[in-house]
Amino acid sequence: xxxxxxxxxxxxxxxxxxxxxxxxxxxxxxxxxxxxxxxxxxxxxxxxxxxxxxxxxxxxxxxxxxxxxxxxxxxxxxxxxxxxxxxxxxxxxxxxxxxxxxxxxxxxxxxxxxxxxxxxxxxxxxxxxxxxxxxxxxxxxxxxxxxxxxxxxxxxxxxxxxxxxxxxxxxxxxxxxxxxxxxxxxxxxxxxxxxxxxxxxxxxxxxxxxxxxxxxxxxxxxxxxxxxxxxxxxxxxxxxxxxxxxxxxxxxxxxxxxxxxxxxxxxxxxxxxxxxxxxxxxxxxx
Length: 286
Prior knowledge:
Elements: H1 10-33, E1 48-53, H2 59-75, E2 81-85, H3 93-99, E3 104-109, H4 116-127, E4 132-135, H5 143-156, H6 164-168, E5 170-176, H7 182-199, E6 203-207, H8 215-224, E7 229-234, H9 241-247, H10 262-285
Parallel strand pairs: 1-2, 1-3, 3-4, 5-6, 5-7
């Protein structure tokens, strides 16, 4: 005699199927609700961050900028992120802004102080574009830049401790690109003072072009004061001709350009957030 199968529990099957369907609907609904604000409106997409690089004929510069953008994406994955160059490399800033249409964007200059590009070139390109833009402050001066400079010096061999005798013979030349704009020199001097406070030795700003003193002049002046153990701190965002030339003058050690450090990515986002907060404050007071 063949044993019969137990009767199927039709009601249990129906309940399991219904529960599965309800769970699926709930998951889809939760995914959609994440895009909606508590008062029922879809959350606005944040303004795009457009990183504005100078541009360089040195291919390492573009590689560095792209690596830095990857760092920014890691810190804030949901933020729309774009790149535009002032010159020499594609995409050029006007093309990047044109591709955004009339979308809002915050332009963050990958520049270390005020100067012609920050005051004239970038605002003029932004004004000519259909995108609704705000130009953030340049990266420097800021303590996060000092963090990045200190890291690069340490990587190059800057000691973690230094006795008093060694300290009296040690100094740093902060080697920057240079600009004819006096505000640019003011910003570089402020960074030099912040770095001197961190290191406990004199830090002299010097320039590769367009401003004085030159790096060589600064080295001679320090040697005349008994400072023969001098490091060159590369105050450049990426490798290039000026950074290489300045590093070659170092009587002791020379640091690498600032590059794609986390401190640099955090500083870019800080400037973006500052510009955003300024915009919101203006709208609130209007």
